[in-house]
Amino acid sequence: AENRYRQNHPNSQNLHEKAIGILPGGNTRSVLHTDPFPIYMDRGEGNRLIDVDGHEYLDLVGEMTAGVCGHSNPIIRDAIISTTTKTGLNLGATTAAEASFAEKIRNRFPSMERMRFCNSGTEANLYALSLARQATGLNKVIVFNGGYHGGVLMFLHGVAENTVDKNDWVVGTYNDEEGVQRLISDNKGIAAAVLVEGMQGAGGCIPGSVKFLHSIQKATKENGMIFIMDEVMTSRLAPGGLQSTIIDPQGNAPLKPDITTLGKYIAGGMTIGVFGGRKELLSLYDPRPFSESNVQKQPAQMSHSGTFNNNTLAMHVGLVALSAVYTPEVCTKLNALGDWFRQELLDRCRGTRMTVTGVGAVCNIHFGGSHEDGLEILRIEDLNARRSIDDSVLGDIFWFRAVQKGFWIARRGMLALTMGTTRAELQGFLDFVEDI
Ligand code: PMP
Q1: Which of the four CATH numbers 3.30.420.10, 3.40.50.2300, 3.90.1150.10, 3.20.20.70 does domain 2-68+327-435 have?
Q2: Does the predicted model carry a pTM greater than 0.90?
Q3: Cα 122 to ligand 1 centre (Å)
Q4: Which of 163, 264, 364 maximizes ligand 1 atoms within 8 Å of its Cβ, making it the mutation to test the pocket?
């Protein structure tokens, strides 16, 4: 399969050989590297990608969930054009669009009573953490094995990778329903916050259990910690984000994190990060001293700068994307299609050494486990157990064959559906899996 790959992609190979002379490994985004060389894409149209050797693919990566609106949505394109022609780029001043966009977000995610914009999901999480540290006067943060919160906030192998200070973290076990309460109470007065994904995305699309996530919410409240839910990836899984679907069986209420972080698709494909939550917390950024709504009744304790925080493209296109493109109806429909697709995929994995986990239109094929192991993963979530069964050779063979058949999937087996993708297109992928 690898030989055929080399033969079919000479232009990609040439471009890679040139790039390695200027970019380390020819690459500026680690996740996109593939041996022997990555495929270079030329362009995207809707849910299709065309590479530099002229091959066309059904895009099942969907820009790792950020590309849910597709590559050439006409409403998004018009919003980009009208912003650049009527408004101009980044005015270096406050504009009306930022409050309108924020209001649109709050309508969907009511726990975000006040919010601020930045430029990436990584940045949103970094700001959320500084806010929690300032509000509590504490330093450490509880995160979970398999968690991914950005390029400098990675815990995929159970330890802090690329983070600024390795001593800042307490790394717990994801979905450890029993242990998490103790973990939080043991760190009372030490940890400022718990930072968690409702479904671990880069960690393999492992859904968090209702009990685990509600235990975090309850225990953080009881122990003076801030509950930060990273919805950078998961907010696309329901109109109100994953938090709106995780209902406490006793109180009958959805999750209400103190702070939520967003990014990826939320500005229709423009660069974006958002952090928001309880208004008392966000008031630490209120620049008006002694104002009514400044609950702290003192000058802003924190400054939040950033040249592109309110850039006109992200603000305008984001508003349009949430109002007219990735609407609640479109979101619900796409995730229902994703639930159907994942179940069909799981059925085809029966009796093989593959399994599938995920929520709605975002899922991950795991290689080397079995169907039963997959169901077990949902219960015990232990990343190390999953790694111990991980068969990267099987994963590689699957990836090479998928690409050859015109299906663009992430090398690690992740799939994120783009709006407009049809059941017939997905059926094509299911048939491929059946044949393989
Ligand atoms: N949090 C989660 C859950 C993510 O999946 C990602 C991106 N994969 C990030 C944060 C970081 O976002 P960005 O790449 O925009 O910095």
Answers
A1: 3.90.1150.10
A2: yes
A3: 6
A4: 264
